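Review form for a predicted model. The reviewer records the input and the model, then writes brief findings.
Reviewer: anonymous (R2)
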Amino acid sequence: MRTPTDDLFQLIKSMTPAEKRFLKQHFDLSDNLKIQLFDLINRQEVYDEAAIKAHFKGTAVARNLKVHKAQLTDLLINSLISGKHAQRKQKSAQTLLTEAQVLYEKNQLKLALKKVDKALEKTYKEELYLLRLSVLGLKKKLLHSARVQSLIGGEKEVLELRRTTHEQSLKALTTYKLLLDTTEMSRSLMEYVHLKNPSGEIAEVQQSLQKVLSLAEEVEQKQSLTVKLQFTGLLKICYVLLKDVEKFEEVSKQQIELVQDQFHDCPKRIQPTILRGTSNFLRHLAQQNKHEEFDKVLSIMDNWLRDKHLSTIFDRSYIYGHQLQSYLNRGLFRQMLNLRPAIQQHLKRHQLQQRAAAESIEILMSVAALALNEMDTLKQSLSFLQKQNLFLSINATGAHEVLQLIFDYEEGSHQKVAKRVKKLKKQTDAESFLYHWLELFEVLATSRTENQTMALKKARSSLAQEQFSEYAESLHLQQWITAQLNGSSFREEMLSEIRNARH
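Model under review:
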């Protein structure tokens, strides 16, 4: 015998009090068995199908409970959708089109035409080209009605409106086709990014670039922000693959200029795409140490993200990560730590503590705390990483353990370092980055000065190897080792590295 499913029970329990009130106000018909079924299930703490059948004994519900459950599920979904529409200040273009189609089928042509015109206005504002074609298709049908023609005016006016509608359809069709073509080209180019070695496919990428550039005039003629953003996005992918930094930066700036002053008036659906593209450009500027340009772009993004709606659909933690990296590259360690309260509030508000971005942020904070010799702050970062059990992207590198060993060593807890090293060596692959670090701290915690010097030099040489260099650079371990060898501070070596990079 099959176990009764509790899907309907779970759906009802997921509804808010407001959603349940809306159901009662708009769908509670007299003698409606489905509403009675809803009330009974809503009162249950645990789903009990036997109790339901007993309650409705002798009725259609008891005889065909499965059917009534399916009907009630559909009713609830319709109620939830209607409730969402009721909450909106304005109807969507799709909703307006649906209403116009219903009115057209009921021969309410005057009202249908009004809905069509409102839907068209929405599709223009939101650049919904495929939907616009559907709306214009319905408008063409309406314009063939004698009753609608009489509302418009004389034969000349009707013919003019038909011609305009036809031209609008052609324009929407060509724009939509251009969007499809550029989308397909983008998908094809991204295969080089994810699946192929770009350096081995330069000729093909250059051909793609020429194909993209050939669309420039057609794109310019379109009064479509969506098309122009898609086009500049294609160019950016090409220049990344061709490693043309200058052109990539030029197009990225053009993309920002396209929307800078009209961002909040852009179609809502493309705003996240703009934000992601600009965020990636921020990361590039931080990596290239172009600090003045970084600050300008960051200021623009800050202005955009004042919109509360955007803060719910775009994860700002990545921007915080780029900002911290930029400050780190400039040696602005205090400014990094000053960002901590705002970042922690953001992560908590959006429940992002378990994201890789949060982990990266804490690693950067740890480096800043170490540079300022603020051990309490470093301890907070390490505690955060350990409690949240993040390690989503760098667990294999042992970054948390590396920082913990540095912390204990700096605190003079050599015995604690020795115990931690002994424990971790049993669990760590001898070929891994962490194992090399453990060998260093085994010597630092237990050996004489001359042996420590040799171990530090050996570790510095190991960290320079290609397979470890990325990990070492992310934690600035070379600078920490140099500080130990020179008897200087980690901060001094970090600032020295920054000065060298500038020259």
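Findings: DSSP finds 30 helices and no strands in the chain.
Further findings: The CA atoms of residues 234 and 258 lie 15 Å apart.
Recommendation: see findings above.
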